Amino acid sequence: MELETIIGLEVHAQMNTKTKMFCACDNNAWEKAPNTTVCPVCMGHPGTLPVVNRAVLEKAVRSSKALKCTVNERSHFDRKNYFYPDLPAGYQISQYKFPLASNGIVKFSVTDPKTNATTQGECRILRLHIENDAGKLMHRANHSLCDYNRAGTPLMEIVTEPDLRSYKEASSFAEELRRILIAAGSSEADMYKGMMRFDASISLRPKGDTKLYPRVEIKNLNSFKALEKALQYQQKVLEKLWSEGKQPTGETTVGWIDDEERTVLLRDKESAADYRYFPEPDIPPLSIGAAFLAAVTQGMEQLPSEMRSAYIALGLTEAEAAMLVDEPQLRERFDAIQVAIQEPKRASSLVLTQLRGFLTEHGKSLADAPSPNQMVELARAISSGTINVNAGKDVLEKMVLTGKAPNVIIKEEGMGQVSDGTTLQKFIDEAIAANPKAIANFKEGKTAALGAIVGAVMKMSKGQADAKKVQELLLKTLTEGT
Asked: Nearest 5°: phi and psi at 362?
């Protein structure tokens, strides 16, 4: 029996606001001393009242629109009750039946690593709601410590429909979702810092069946690689059960042990009743009007998929376009050059090949890269013929190493391209005299022999001669002299 894989994701993304969701505490807990960015509100002390951070709503709405969701005019918060040691109040302020947004869609590309062939996919978004995060548990031998710095951090929970059909589709969707949230300006989605996490649900069914069978939920996956490996592992477990005629009879929750690359049973899957949802009594319902929507979404950047299509339309490859979408600092430099000289291939070569190569070679990061204005200055010097392409590479490497502007380097190094006809003719005459064999070959019809003469001229001029003009003058000299 052929089985089909059914996957859905719940994605938690931390919003990049300055303060937490319901209080004025610092929202950046990274590398802060434990329990130093807390207050009575985010610690859930009796008598305190949460106040919704307006920036949270703005960023969540921007994300909702970027995901093509409908932002609901009315939504409200609910209390989701469960006990975690690092959940100070004993409940989470979340949204349940009336989320902020619903019914979106994400289009994504899946690339086969063996063939580099790309296929297109799409996944529907069931809902986007907002909630506050719990703290963090740190386990030491036979005891655990609680750090509440993250408690109250604003999260978007993005829930998909079960539209994904493989672990590769799941990770490709997740990567595209991360790009969208970053482009919307709502989250840094830094997975190393725990700003984006996944809960993945997986089930199997006979091919052609439309029924959904009991699922297994894999909790708290914190990287694309972990997402892929956990789904691959759990799929094999489920396939073995089906092959033995032991279809899952109930939904379960498992945890992923990264070091051992396996899942372990945590508990039976909770239902909504287990959380005892009820409307949050301390926060009034939200009302999102048209004026608020228009103000918040004004000036939003292109979506990553739109950027990618635009770059491919310029003649760039899928890989080049993806690189520009994923690296805003590279994109800023490419766009500046393209606007200035309208030569996408030259812009791609300078930014995606040469600049990245020199930064890697010399152990530098994009923060150390020449500014967009300096890159434009270099591109114009090459495009105008002030320096040739090879000299341009040397200038760029020196820009990376010294931080100097290209025109300064060109002047200091005497690298300006020689295009003066009199000077070039002198080089050509000397090269002809020094290469009688190449001249004889040319007169016998071997036009490729001109390469030796051009090479000699370039050597005499220390690479500064305008190669195109050299060829023109050389051909004219030999033709007229024949």
From this structure: -105, 15
**Which domains does the chain possess?**
3-296 (no CATH), 304-413 (no CATH), 421-481 (1.10.10.410)
Residue 453, SS3? helix
User: Is 221 in a helix, a strand, or coil?
Assistant: strand
* Cβ-Cβ contacts under 8 Å for 147 (sequence gap 6 or more): 29, 34, 35, 86, 135, 136, 137, 138
**Model confidence pLDDT, tens digit, residues 406-462:** 989 988 877 665 555 676 788 788 878 888 887 777 777 777 777 777 777 777 766
Does residue 401 sit in helix, strand or coil? helix
Q: pLDDT, tens digit, for every residue of 87-142?
A: 999 999 999 999 999 999 999 999 887 887 889 999 999 999 999 999 999 888 88
Q: Give the residue ranges of DSSP H helices in 354-404.
A: 356-361, 372-383, 389-402
What the block records as the tokens of 422 is: 């009199």
- pTM for this entry: 0.80
Alpha carbon separation from 194 to 15, 60, 72, 217 (Å, rounded)? 12, 18, 28, 19
SS3 per-residue string spanning 286-333:
EECCHHHHHHHHCCCCCCHHHHHHHHHHCCCCHHHHHHHHHCHHHHHH
